[in-house]
From TrEMBL:
GO terms for cellular component: cytosol. It catalyses: D-fructose 6-phosphate + L-glutamine = D-glucosamine 6-phosphate + L-glutamate. Keywords: Aminotransferase, Cytoplasm, Glutamine amidotransferase, Repeat, Transferase. It comes from Flexibacter flexilis DSM 6793. It is an enzyme of class 2 (transferase). This is Glutamine--fructose-6-phosphate aminotransferase [isomerizing]. Its EC number is 2.6.1.16. The chain holds residues 246 to 611 of 611 of the full protein. Signal peptide: none annotated.
Length: 366
């Protein structure tokens, strides 16, 4: 059942070229300029005309929501708030009739996310669900939605569900932006093509497995890790840190790279591994200076960079080169090495990666 892999988590990481394709199948055809999400048809105009969009989720799904915030705001120009479902539901949130709430949940059973949408619904919001499990409670409680079609996720640490969530949310954002006219035809078609090529590029990122295992061996005994990214790679830093802490029990923190100066920089010494997600995008020059700041304090830098980068390899201790793509969908590629890094470190530390202590696959109590 693990398809020859040692753990479900590894199987699910390696399934991603396939699960992302499954998620796009029948929905996206870049050659024909075709993008359709059946579950959106009835409600697309409500999203196009929305004054704002709220996203509610927990954990890794919240990270996917944060990637979506950046994508939606850039392409649709609709203001987006991403909320932890547990905070949102208890603070008497401001919800108006016609507000659009997107709920993201792999299991579709997370208690706080379910309660958050019930609350929003009672105040007249339109609920759009992005779930993996068909027929789950959140899927049923939503007015409309799109399934991620990633297939069953058994490993407690979420991997393929995350990339499928980001894929669905990107398709929703592009559809809304296209309908709204807030994206040019050229850019729209370029992004459809880039999205369609993601599975092949994820396959290339997976081919770095051995190299990542080698890096994992060097850092497996670290007591702390810092993950830093900017822009679209900021939520990837959060996700990388979460993956490491939940399965290897190493303390890790994800931060927007520029926030480092406001506190975490005090932690940096020769013992501190810092993972930079530093692919070639609009914040590249800025993150290069952040890498220099860490090196100046003797931190150990592991950098995820775009293939062909010549500058960061001169500064970093270890580099992981991933294929280039549009910066808005880079998280689909840049997260892969971080999933593998946490997996190998956890295995080397003898941890139960598929069932980490204290964690359950679906959190049905608050
Ligand atoms: C992390 C992880 C959890 C879940 C969170 C939400 O790897 O698995 O953080 O992402 O419990 O679960 P769902 O998406 O089922 O609502």
């Amino acid at each position: 059942e693990k398809g020859g892999y040692e753990h479900f988590m590894l199987k699910e990481i390696f399934e991603q070229p396939r699960s992302i394709s499954d998620c796009m199948r029948g929905r996206l055809d870049a050659n024909r300029g075709h993008l359709v999400l059946g579950g959106l048809r009835e409600y697309i105009n409500k999203i196009v005309n929305a004054d704002r969009i709220l996203i509610v989720a927990c954990g890794t799904s919240w990270h996917a929501g944060t990637v979506a915030e950046y994508i939606f705001e850039e392409f649709t120009r609709i203001p987006v708030e991403v909320e932890y479902a547990s905070e949102f539901r208890y603070r008497n949130p401001i919800i108006k009739e016609g507000d659009v709430v997107i709920a993201i949940s792999q299991s579709g059973e997370t208690a706080d996310t379910l309660a958050a949408i019930e609350l929003a619904k009672s105040k007249g919001a339109i609920i759009f669900g992005v779930c993996n499990v068909v027929g789950s409670s959140i899927a049923r409680a939503s007015h409309a939605g799109s399934y991620t079609h990633a297939g069953p996720e058994i490993g407690v640490a979420s991997t393929k569900a995350f990339t499928a969530q980001v894929t669905v949310l990107t398709m929703v954002a592009l559809l809304v932006a296209h309908r709204k006219g807030s994206i040019t035809e050229a850019r729209y078609h370029e992004l459809l093509t880039d999205l369609e090529q993601i599975p092949v590029k994820v396959e290339k990122a997976l081919a770095l497995n051995k190299q990542i295992e080698y890096i994992a061996d060097i850092f497996k005994d670290a007591r702390n890790f810092l993950y830093l990214g900017r822009g679209y790679n900021f939520p990837v830093a959060l996700e990388g840190a979460l993956k490491l802490k939940e399965i290897s029990y190493i303390h890790a923190e994800g931060y927007p790279a520029a926030e480092m100066k406001h506190g975490p920089i005090a932690l940096i010494d020769e013992e501190m591994p810092v993972v930079f997600i530093a692919t070639h995008d609009s914040s590249y020059e800025k993150i290069v200076s952040n890498i220099q700041e860490v090196k100046a304090r003797k931190g150990k830098v592991i950098a995820v960079v775009t293939e062909g980068d010549t500058l960061i390899p001169k500064m970093a201790d270890f580099i992981i080169e991933v294929p280039a793509t549009n910066e808005a969908i880079m998280p689909l590629i840049s997260v892969i090495p971080l999933q593998l890094l946490s997996y190998h470190i956890a295995v080397m530390r003898g941890c139960n990666v598929d069932q980490p202590r204290n964690l359950a696959k679906s959190v049905t109590v608050e």
